[in-house]
Amino acid sequence: xxxxTPTSPxxxxxxxxxxxxxxxxxxxxxxxxxxxxxxAYSVSVRRSYRKxxxxxVNTHSLQRSDLLPAAEALTECFQRLSxxxxxxxxxxxxxxx
Length: 97
Description:
This protein is of the alpha+beta class. The chain has one domain (14-83). The protein is built from 1 helix and 4 strands. A hairpin with a 2-residue loop joins strand 1 and strand 2. The protein is elongated, with a radius of gyration of 17 Å.
């Protein structure tokens, strides 16, 4: 019989908000080609806004004025995930391509 117990959504390991822009990073267990297990992260960016009827909604589409706050939030997220508040260095081996 299938398990029908609802699962709770994953909680972000990093959550940052700059005005109406929020960034959340989630940890996922992954395996490399050689079978080693490591922690990978997926990051979500969203913009909150109020519709004309007053209801708050979220979207992943950004406007021009959202770009700098999103960049700042993503930079801070990167620093927290890499364990560095002082530098923005990335080794070439850390890049996905």
